[in-house]
Amino acid sequence: MVKRGHSHFTGVPCSLLKGLFRLLEDPGCPAAYIPAPREDSALGVASGLALAGARPVALMQNSGLGYSLNVLTSFNLIYDVHLPIVVSWRGHDGNDAVEHDVIGRELTRLLDVFGIPWTVLDNARPEDGVEAFLKQYDSGRSTAVLIVREGI
């Protein structure tokens, strides 16, 4: 993502994304990482950065995406402030904490309902998944989601 010009990352840590957060928190990382207290706050920070001309990426758990839908639908999608969002897919296989079961089971359908394109990251070929995700985002600058179902 950094090679494609994404300069700022903001979000709430998640165990499935811990490798990515570890890279972002490294002092040698070429991108800026701005921690957020909640996922909807991360969308606000990323939106401000996007409006200022930066190329941010928001990072969150799928449970946080659930309560961030109001921000997405009442601001980002209607005012064309589109963002690339990386979402961990907790509960997709029914083997997670019970609070992740419903959103895990319905994540892709939820994104479809709101017309948000998504790509599931294949850990065996992560570059291909990131490239497909960024193409969805870059084509017409639409909000797009990269779903991470296994830890990275």
Task: Characterize this entry briefly.
With 152 residues, the chain is α/β, with parallel strands linked by helices.
Task: Report on this structure.
This protein has helices spanning 18-25, 39-51, 62-76, 101-113, 126-138; strands spanning 8-11, 32-35, 56-61, 84-88, 118-120, 144-148. By secondary structure, the chain is an alpha/beta fold. Helix 2 (39-51) packs across helix 3. The longest helix is centred in the middle third of the chain and has 15 residues, at 62-76. It comes from Streptomyces aureus. GO terms for molecular function: carboxy-lyase activity; magnesium ion binding. Keywords: Decarboxylase, Lyase, Pyruvate.
List keywords for this structure.
152 residues; Rossmann fold; decarboxylase; THDP-binding
Give the CATH architecture.
3-Layer(aba) Sandwich
Quote the distance from N terminus to C terminus: 14 Å
Number of domains: 1
As a whole number of angstroms, the C-alpha radius of gyration is 14 Å
Number of helices: 5
Question: Structural class of the secondary elements?
Answer: alpha/beta
Helix content estimate: 40-55%
Identify the overall geometry: globular
Per CATH, the superfamily is Thiamin diphosphate (ThDP)-binding fold, Pyr/PP domains
SSE order and pairing:
Blueprint (H helix, E strand, L loop, with lengths): L7 E4 L6 H8 L6 E4 L3 H13 L4 E6 H15 L7 E5 L12 H13 L4 E3 L5 H13 L5 E5 L4
Parallel strand pairs: 1-2, 1-3, 3-4, 4-6, 5-6
